[in-house]
Each structure stands twice: as structure tokens, then as C-alpha cells.
Target: Fructose-bisphosphate aldolase
Amino acid sequence: ALVTTTEMFKKALNSDYAIGAFNVNNMEIIQGIVDAGQAENAPLILQVSAGARKYAKPVYLVKLVEAAVEDTGVDLALHLDHGADFEICKSCVDGGFTSVMYDGSKHPFEENIRITKQVVEYAHAHGVVVEAELGKLSGVEDAVHVDAREASFTVPEEAAEFVEKTGVDSLAVAIGTSHGAYKFKGTPYLDFERLKTIHSLIPDTPLVLHGASTVMKEFVDRCNEYGGDIPGAQGVPEDMIREAVKHGVCKVNIDTDLRLAMTAEVRRVLVENPAEFDPRKYLGPGRDAITRMVRHKIKDVLNATNRR
Ligand code: G3H
Ligand code: 13P
Ligand code: NA
Ligand code: ZN
Model:
């Protein structure tokens, strides 16, 4: 069935594992991820961004996810990723999602609290859970000065006040990750002391790590080997994810690694089989590549095998 993340997070919170939250926007990606979750007997969150919703049209994504549940019998949470305002959160609550993120991180603290509270009120009244975000994820281009970057990190005392005032179910924190394939220029760095402090102040609140793709070298290399041009890509090392899940991080967001795994395989198949033009012949291998990658994440990085 489609379930909320409440039970998943309750079990993960004080254990050394986390739930993978994978971004979806088409059938092959959904099937690739769900097959991996089923094979590993792992809890799963499928998440949809505003862009993905627009690309696939909302009803298609919901029906595809419902089909995945019906076909496999697995329990999944269907989550809105980075909802920008109350309206999109409401629309997803009304449309069958079990979880929504309201991302008010661009707003001043009080405004973020005000809108998050409004989303929480509506969502909870409809049996849906809410993730919010405090602090800003900064990309490589923003990180001119280390000080400037750290100024955007989540302030632990604010996190405690925010959770208290909003009643939010989970909280995304900024500790040095960013979205996309270019997370660090030099040595990767995450502020684990800050994460531990946040977790100690709000020990009952599941924390969320956005921008958690590793930008796996094998996929970047394969893309580049078969005609791609993705120089200097760098993500969060796997050991840092393994560490984060021990300190309150219950949800680990992964999109970029899905994109890279699928694209690397599609590129390889097309280059090696130039006469091929049946989409099933490259999307099928792309889907299988996603399954292998997600199984690796679940088993070797998130430690979530057999946690269902
Ligand atoms: O948070 C970013 C996710 O990777 C979704 O990306 O907005 O391009 O769908 P998107
Ligand atoms: P990545 O770009 O690191 O995969 O992060 C995805 C994410 O945080 C989606 O919300
Ligand atoms: Na955990
Ligand atoms: Zn994100």
C-alpha cells in the first residue's frame, strides 16, 4: 500500500540505517527502484519534484506508483520533493501523496515557520506527513568562502525552535551537501559536529539529507567514455552517508545518481549498438542499471536491507 513515513522513520531513527528517497519521473525509473527495494526487502520513499510532476503530468506519476504497489505488493511512501508553496503541497495531499515537503528555506525564519505550520495543519488533517527545511543547501558556485557557505548551514537552536513551533514530522538540514553533480571543488566536507548537535537537541525528529548522491565514479566515467562531457563531477563519499545515518538522518535523498546510472547505460548501449532504435532496447538496460545501483545503495550505504 501507499503508506506514510511515520513507521519507517520511527524504526530508523535510533538505528544505524536510513531510508532511501529516490526521485522519479517515468515508468522505467519507478520500476528500477521498486525492483531494488523488493529484492532487498527494504523500505522505500519515491519522491516527485515540481519539475517531475510537470514533465510526466501529476496523474501519470500517481498511477504509475500505484501500479508499482499493486504489481509488487510493497509498501511505499509517495512524497512531494521541495514543494515551493502551500498550494502545491495541498494539491499533492489532495492527489494521493502520503508525504509532502514544504521547502521554505528561501524565506526568513518566521515566514518559513508560518507557511510550514499551515502545510502541517492541512496535511495532518488528511493523514499526510510533512518535511520542512531549515538552512540553505549551497552549491559549488556559492562556496567562494568557507565562512559564507557555513553561514547558510542549519543553526541547531533554530532547528529546535522550528520543530517545536511547526509540529513538522521531519526536518531537512544543511550541513554541506548540495544538489546535482558538482558538490565540492576540493575535499568533500560535511559538518558532522553540527549534525550531532541538531540531533541532540531534537532527538525525536527524523532528519533528512538532501543532495546526498555520491556521483559514483563508474557512471561518470562510463558517460564520458561513451560521448558524454561531465568533467569535475563530485558527490558525497559513501562513508559520509554511512556516518550521517548514525546521527538522526533517516531519509537520504538521491536523484543525481539515478540520472547518471541510467544515462551511462543508455549511452553505452547506443554507442555499442548504433543500428538499434527500439527504445526498449536502451531504456530496459537503463532500468536494470538503476536497479543495480539502488540495491547497492540500500545494502552497502544505507544499511537498509531487510528493514521492511
Ligand atoms: O531537488 C532536486 C531534485 O534533484 C529534483 O530535480 O527539479 O530537476 O526535478 P528537478
Ligand atoms: P542529489 O542531487 O544529490 O541526488 O540530491 C537529490 C535531492 O536532494 C532531491 O531533493
Ligand atoms: Na538512522
Ligand atoms: Zn533536495
About this structure: The two ends are 13 Å apart (CA to CA). The chain has one domain: 6-301. The chain has 13 helices and eight strands.
